[in-house]
Structure formats: structure tokens, C-alpha cells
Design goal:
alpha/beta; six-stranded mixed sheet; five-stranded mixed sheet; 11 strands; globular
């Protein structure tokens, strides 16, 4: 059996869609696939450290560890769907731009390290470093939005796709201050090397889904509107190098 883990970056309402997707994937590769939807990043890493994950839809930060230290193999990536981040505030604050934030500001943040790295780069123009900020950890992007609305912080970091999927009622109470435009980083599908014998079949399944009427609608419901394309070793290494640059 192949355990397929979905990174906990996606809204809970997508989980039903991922289960449907998983059923289709099983049929296409003729292998039993068990879907894992961890509640948070810590639970994800626990599954990985226990060797329970064979296939993963991982964010670019975690891809570094998975590829370079655990030997995971590149499979596919969503087409023209990049991991950008949004710095936002509550609509009632005076902030109009991320450069308005000052030392000692309070920022709500999830355990998405790629989002934090990009956010810190965006705040360089405000003269802010990591130690200048009072970080307020939250379990999810939804919790970050609720915290902002309650006035618990000056700003929050969001994965852009999560921010844009908030309902209109929530977004009316928030104000985006800055959104990244890297156009280089994305979540990726990776396969543990133990399952090398399934690599070709899994690649074919992911790439072919955008041409299948049934799976095309499933992908659209998950927000992967253009489907998946092949992820090469070279592309994976370039993305990992970019993440390493962001850390410096």
C-alpha cells in the first residue's frame, strides 16, 4: 500500500475533494493508496519521520529535506500555480502597506516556513528583521484571519492561495498589505525511493489527469485548474536552491 500525504496548507473544505482524487489515483495506477491529511506541520513531520509516507504533496520548504536528505524523487507539479504569500492586516488598522509596520509589531504566523521566509524578505524594505517582530503562532491560516479580525495582532502571514479562498465576509474585514510575485516556487509531488517501481505510472497518472474529463473537474474543485505537469530533477534542484537563498 502507498500512503499519500497532503501538506496541511490547504483549507479543510478541500479534504473531501482530495479523497475523491485519491480514489481516482488508485484506479489509474492500480495500487492501493491511503490518503493522509495531517492536522498541522508537526503531525506531517511525525508521519514522515516514522517512514509512513510514500507519496507527498509537499510545500517547497519541506521539499528540501525530502529530496536532499531523504532521497524523495520528483514526480509532478501544478501548472502555473505558484506558492506566493500575502501580508495582511485588519481593515480597521491604519496600515496601508507592509512598509508601515514597525519594530515590535505583532504578526500571526503558522508553521509554514516557506511563507515565513518569503514574508521576511518582503519586510526587508520596512527595515524589519525576524528579531524585530513579536511572533504569535497559530494553527492555521483560518485561525490567523480570525486572530486579525479580533485585533490580536498588527498583521498576519498567509499562503496567497489560502488568503484568496477566504469567503467575502472574511476578506472584507482584512486588508492585504503586500503580496509576493516570485513565480518560481510551488508545491510538488514527491515519491519515496522505495516506490521507484511506481514512478512512471504515477507520473503518467498525474500528468494525464488534466486531459480526463472526470479528473479535470476534481482538479478544478481543488484549485489546481490547469492540472499537473512533469517535475524534472533540474527544476526541483533549482527550486531548492532558491529556498536556500531565501534562508540566507
Amino acid at each position: 500500500m502507498l500512503n499519500f500525504l497532503i501538506a496541511p496548507d490547504f483549507p479543510p473544505e478541500n479534504f473531501v475533494g482530495w479523497h475523491i482524487f485519491n480514489t481516482v489515483l488508485q484506479r489509474k495506477i492500480d495500487t492501493e493508496v491511503h490518503l493522509i491529511t495531517p492536522a498541522d506541520h508537526d503531525e506531517q513531520m511525525e508521519f514522515i519521520s516514522q517512514g509512513q509516507v510514500g507519496l507527498i504533496y509537499a510545500n517547497p520548504f519541506d521539499a528540501t529535506e525530502l529530496v536532499r536528505h531523504l532521497g524523495f524523487l520528483p514526480v509532478a507539479k501544478p501548472i502555473e500555480q505558484f506558492d506566493e504569500m500575502v501580508i495582511a492586516t485588519h481593515f480597521g488598522t491604519p496600515y496601508q502597506h507592509s512598509d508601515d509596520l514597525r519594530k515590535g509589531c505583532r504578526i500571526l504566523i503558522t508553521n509554514n516556513r516557506d511563507v515565513k521566509l518569503i514574508g521576511l524578505r518582503l519586510l526587508e524594505s520596512a527595515g524589519l528583521e525576524e528579531s524585530d517582530i513579536e511572533w504569535k503562532p497559530v494553527a492555521s491560516f483560518q485561525a490567523a484571519a480570525h486572530g486579525l479580525i479580533k485585533g490580536e495582532a498588527d498583521a498576519a502571514f498567509f499562503l496567497a492561495s489560502a488568503y484568496h479562498e477566504f469567503n467575502n465576509s472574511t476578506k472584507k474585514k482584512l486588508r492585504p498589505l503586500m503580496e509576493s510575485r516570485l513565480n518560481e516556487l510551488s508545491h510538488v509531488i514527491l515519491l519515496r525511493p522505495d516506490f521507484l517501481h511506481l514512478l512512471t505510472a504515477i507520473k503518467r497518472a498525474f500528468i494525464g489527469m488534466r486531459h480526463d474529463a472526470e479528473t479535470k473537474f476534481i482538479l478544478e474543485d481543488l484549485g489546481i485548474v490547469h492540472g499537473f505537469e512533469d517535475l524534472t530533477v533540474e527544476e526541483t534542484e533549482f527550486m531548492i536552491d532558491l529556498m536556500e537563498t531565501l534562508k540566507d
